[in-house]
# Entry
Amino acid sequence: MTPVSAGAELTYPLAALLAEPAGSRRDYEFDGLWPDVGADLELAAPVAGRVRFSRTNRGVLITGLVETALALVCSRCLRPIELPLRMTLNEEALPTLDLASGKPLDPLIEPEIVRLTDHHEVRLEPIIREAIQLGEPIAPVCRPDCPGLCVVCGERLDDGPHEHDEEVLDPRLEALRSFRVDDDAETG
Ligand SMILES: [Zn+2]
Ligand SMILES: [Zn+2]
# Structure
């Protein structure tokens, strides 16, 4: 599939809003977007959501709701899973230029805060990327009681009744085990 240029789609010009008094608002909706979520994550569904930009005294408050799904694998049984994500946005963005004087504001003041571009645009893509990265679970599971993999043969314990006689271990697995011990000893 050819991704829509989500970075461009998710850039909103706010110069007009910035000229309005505090409390003024703009609402937008988006759908079907595939933003860059970083090399370590894969989206299983396009990003959809809505966002509100509210003029504050200093800049713009960004609030909204973003929905997508991540393509992950179950941390117990390694089955591919789709994890729906629903995230709220709540972030203040400040101009890079002083609105009255047009002079650049010191970027070293509050360096962690989101900045508008020199053209008074807000780029939502990096904000959404960060929200998705924060929403990624550390140990996703296909279901809460996933029994995982058999420690002896590596089969999914979900797939059926399962017993092993400790005497008849697969010799290939035995070889793998001793290899693993050696490996640990070398690196450890
Ligand atoms: Zn699982
Ligand atoms: Zn087994």
